[in-house]
Amino acid sequence: MELVGEEKKIQTLFSELRLADNQTLPSFSATWSRAQARALRPRRVFNLPFAVATALLICALVSLAWWSTRWQHTQQPNVVAITPSGVVPDLKPSEVVPAGGKIPAPSGSEPKKPISAVHRFKVSARLRADRLAARQEANLLAAAKKQATAISSWRSPTATLLSSPNDDLLKSLPQLNESTNDLKSFLPNTPK
């Protein structure tokens, strides 16, 4: 096959391009030996950026937990009930201290210590909190029951489109042992 002028020119351009590529590319043996040397080198177990990111994440989680517990404690109001002297709210009669401050000792037992005002306030606050929690729980339970009944009685808006006045006719099948007159009753516009 004989090369014509234009084809010779293209062939020389390709050979020049191949020669330039061979000069700029590294040799295969050098590349292969570098890859093997890199594979034999032990990897560093301690990765500094990963360790720093992990430490920051742990610090963030600990500070978030600490902040949330502190926030919950500050959200609870410190309620102090002010009551007239001699009146103790929500206490059993056995816990009420007489006006003199001394509790008569029942026979056959050791004398009881008078209940301090702080203790009375703590007891009444605890009782009120328990009652409030019970009320809230009852309200949540009632709301959950109401929601469950609403969900169980729900019908889709298109449910009425799935039923027709002739549902009983469509759901019944003719028996093969019936007479032809009875079978004609399933056809529309025929007298029974």
If helices are DSSP runs of H or I spanning 4 or more residues, what is the number of helices? 6
Helix and strand pattern: HHHHHH
State the helical fraction: 55-70%
Radius of gyration: 46 Å
Number of strands: 0
Features:
0% strand; flat; 192 residues; 6 helices; mainly alpha; single chain
Strand and helix layout:
Layout: H1 5-24, H2 28-40, H3 48-75, H4 117-152, H5 167-171, H6 180-184
Please tell me about this protein's structure:
It is built from six helices and no strands. It is mainly alpha-helical. The radius of gyration is 46 Å and the shape is flat.
Q: Outline of this structure?
A:
With 192 residues, this protein is an all-alpha fold.
